[in-house]
Amino acid sequence: MKIALIAHDRMKEQIVQLAMAYESILAKHELYATGTTGSRIMEATSLSLTRFLSGPLGGDQQIGAMIARNEMDLIIFLRDPLTSQPHEPDIIALLRLCDVHKIPFATNLGSAEIMLKALELGQLDWREVVHEENEA
């Protein structure tokens, strides 16, 4: 599975803690992250991931391009609901693309943990069927 890890500035510590707590699950998958989030996760864990640009500088759009090609299976985007974001339209576009392509999208620690536990139990394996259908 291809998983994107994204976090607003005030949520970066939480996503690092999440990556540390679920490192054994995440290590079995192909990971992607936006700029600083990716750096922070790599510094705190032994996880290897592909880093994109910072979200406001186009990283959200880079991940969006993968979603549009149905090349992403799960998005964990810990959003800061109390701070206005200048790239809010990019975030809304990510949500819309995930809805169009039926890609699970977690926006807070609670939903992220549920998604990661479901991933561990094989409950997101239906995404593999989606990939097979797109290849046919």
Automatic annotation (TrEMBL):
GO terms for molecular function: methylglyoxal synthase activity. It catalyses: dihydroxyacetone phosphate = methylglyoxal + phosphate. GO terms for cellular component: cytosol. Its EC number is 4.2.3.3. Keywords: Lyase. Residues 1-136 form the MGS-like domain. GO terms for biological process: methylglyoxal biosynthetic process. It is an enzyme of class 4 (lyase). It holds the Pfam family MGS. Gene3D superfamilies: Methylglyoxal synthase-like domain. Substrate binds at residues 8, 12, 34-37, 54-55, 87. The active site is at residue 60. HAMAP family: Methylglyoxal_synth (MF_00549). Belongs to the methylglyoxal synthase family. Catalyzes the formation of methylglyoxal from dihydroxyacetone phosphate. This is Methylglyoxal synthase. It comes from Brevibacillus fortis. The gene is mgsA.
